[in-house]
Structure formats: structure tokens, C-alpha cells
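Good day; I would like, with your permission, to put a structural problem before you. A protein sequence and the C-alpha cells that stand for its backbone fold form the material at issue. The record follows directly beneath this note:
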Amino acid sequence: MGKVTGFMEYERLEEGYEPVTARVKNYKEFVIALNVDQAKQQGARCMDCGTPFCNNGCPVNNVIPDFNDLVYKGRPEDWKHAITVLHSTNNFPEFTGRICPAPCEAACTLNVNDDAVGIKSIEHAIIDRAWAEGWVQPQPPKVKTGKTVAIVGAGPAGLAAAQQLARVGHSVTVFEKNDRVGGLLRYGIPDFKMEKSHIDRRVEQMKAEGVEFRTGVMVAALPEGSKVTNWAKETISADELKSQFDAVLLTGGAEQSRDLPVPGRDLAGVHFAMEFLPQQNKVNAGDKLKNQIRADGKHVIVIGGGDTGSDCVGTSNRHGAKSVTQFELLPQPPEVEDRPLTWPYWPIKLRTSSSHEEGCEREFAIATKEFIGEKGKLTGVKTVRLKWEGGKMTEVEGSEQILKADLAFLAMGFVSPVATILDAFGVDKDARGNGKASTEGAAAYKTNVDKVFAAGDMRRGQSLVVWAIREGRQAAKAVDEYLMGVSRLPR
């Protein structure tokens, strides 16, 4: 424990933001990270609890008190040790330090009756300094095993698994249907939340460790008429992968968006969020794109109150939308959680994102009844107010209204991975349409098909980046044990 009384002496320090007027003019990151002294002060607040609930609150089980203490000590060698501790559980802290919602902080013991330690901001500071100091280096294997592994999907689960497997000597090939590596990190998360240079330098590190990336390759096929982003230029079958590789790990994202089958759904101007967001990221990368969905000067309605909806809000504001309104089916949650009731679990409370602060009307307890249009184009959205009692939803009589809309984005979550990919491999699905596989025991992450494994969204459905990294790491250990009989990779 660095400073015994630190949690009583110092207040929580939040990372800063650049002014709204400046940041909405571009797609660059705008978070102002903690400097070395601020990170040290924040680390001093950690109480080094006898039972560190933050460790269990974190899906990858980061050893949080240890790196907090090292940052508090503050010597260069302590910071260097801190990144070693952080990397021992998390392959990509630059991703989670930017876009993780930080369930570790909800579980912080200090959060019972005070403000939690800024764990996420400390993690962010550690990894950014590690890259700046040159402490992040490739770790190629000393010996190759001669075993080959195909990983389908280059998102966080696939990347974490690929890095772990390459470091123990397997020959790993990652297949990605789009033109760049990163999955939903690349073509789902807006650049203003995470610039893609962070992915690119990890890719270079992994190439130096022996990982081969094959982009623009569709494994199996998407359903006819699918709206899932696909910039593949070639196709390979599931049978080819199974015959060419000793093991196959499916790590694709839950890209099947939840639809809203109401009248007018086919009007021009009604889109899935995941039609809109990938296009902007592709343009940001320097590509030219015909018929890009743009919100310039338009009235935009975002249906869905989660992170994807918030990303649509931020992107629409950067386009110069005339107005942005976000719908949420559920009633407005309390502004402050009941900590004695919810701690150490993730609380339900009103969360206002940086995108909301840039300009957005938020409507709660509202449902979309119909999309209204003229000459095939969206002009408005017919809504109704909702009343919630005993967990049941009823419409409020006489509350229907029509709101002006030129664009409507469906951001209501994702129902499952793409079924045709699982079907091509013959993998059994659970009741929610995910690849069926357990996470424990001798059959961890194994599907019903010999040598085919599943992890991340492909196995658990829509989830957080940090959960994808966890499952990728654990699946890598399972694949290694399958190939070698024993594994020295961490669980």
C-alpha cells in the first residue's frame, strides 16, 4: 500500500475533455489524460483492500491494487513494472483504458460511500507511457510448435487469442472479412473515442511475433441481403479452414443488429447504426466512399439509448446535424445510484456520455410506432409514450405524436452473431443464436465440431471489449491444451 491515508487526503481526479466547440470539428480523440503526478495522486487513493473487489469487477481480473501502488511509487522502474503487471492479464490496455465502462470502479471498495479510485484513468496513463517509453515490444516465441491455428474475426477476442497463441509458438492466421484489422473496434467504435493508430501498432507488434493477417477474406457467407458490413474481396469455405489448420477459433462479433419491424421501415433514411458508423470510420481512414450516409443539416432520431446510440449522436453532431434526438424505451433511471444496495455490482443510473454533452435531446419511456414518409423518403417518426408498472410496459393513451426526422438510426443492440457462419461450420447454437460452448472444464470453448472453438461475441453474444479480451485469452489456453496436451498460458 503506497499511502495509508491517501484515500482520505485526495479526491478523485477525472480525465479532462477538450471544449465541445473544438472537438466536434474533427474525429480525433479529445480526452485529456492524467499526467504522471496526477496518476500518482490517484494511485495513492487505492486502499489495497484485503479483498480487492475491483479485481473481480474487472472481467480480465486486472491486478489493480498492484499497478496502482507502483504508479504511486512513481519511479520509472515502477511504471515499467506496472505495465508488466497490466499486460499479465490484459493484452490491450490501450483499448480498455479508452472505451471500457470500468466495472472495476463500480466494484471499488471506496465507491461504497465515496468516489471510486480512477482505475481506468491510471490504466490509460500506464499504457500510454509504456508506448512512449518503448516498453511495449514484440515477444516472438523461442520455439515453434509446428501447429497451425485459424482465427476467424480480427476483433478484440480474435486479436487477444492470436497474440497468446503466437507467443507459445503456434503458427496463427487471422481471417477478417473487412479491409482492415480490428473488427468492431475498427468499424464500430468512432475514432473520436479511440483512434485506430492504437490498433495499427498492435498489429505491427503481432506481425513481429509471427501472426499472419488475411484481410478482405470472407469465411463462409453472409445471408442474402444482409446489412452487416462486408468489404471482402475473396471467400474461403469452412471446410477449407478445417482441412488446412489444426484448430479453428471463431471470434466474430455479434453483428446481427436488432431490427424494428414497424410500418415505414423500408423508407429511405432509416438505417441500422452499423450501416452508418463503419462508413464514417472508413472515410476517416482516407478511403473514398460513394453514397455515404450523412447527417449534415438533417433532423436525426437515434432509436436506442446505449453506447451505439451515443456513438450515432456524436457522429451526427460532427456531420453538422440540425437536431439530434435519442429514444430510450425504458424510463429515465436515477441520477445517483443506491450504492448500499448495488455495490459492488454495476449500478443502474443515468449515464450522460460526452456525445450527449455535445448536443442531444434525450427522450425516455418512448416507443416508435411508425416511420412516416413522402415519396419513399423518411420525413417523421410517430411515437407513443410508455408507462412502466411492475416491470410491464403499457402505452399512454392519447400520447401519440409525430417528430420530424430526415434520418433514423436503429441502435437497439445486437441479437446474435451471423447465423450462416456458425451453420457453415456445423456449430450448434444456444437459445440466443450464439455458438454453443462452455467456458469451464476440459471442454472449455470447444464447440460440438472437432477442433472448432468459439469465443467472444461469437459464443456469449453482444458484450464489452474487455469481455472479448478475456474470452480470447481463455480460449487461447483451451486451444493450446487441445494441440499440445498441456498449456503454460494463463487462464
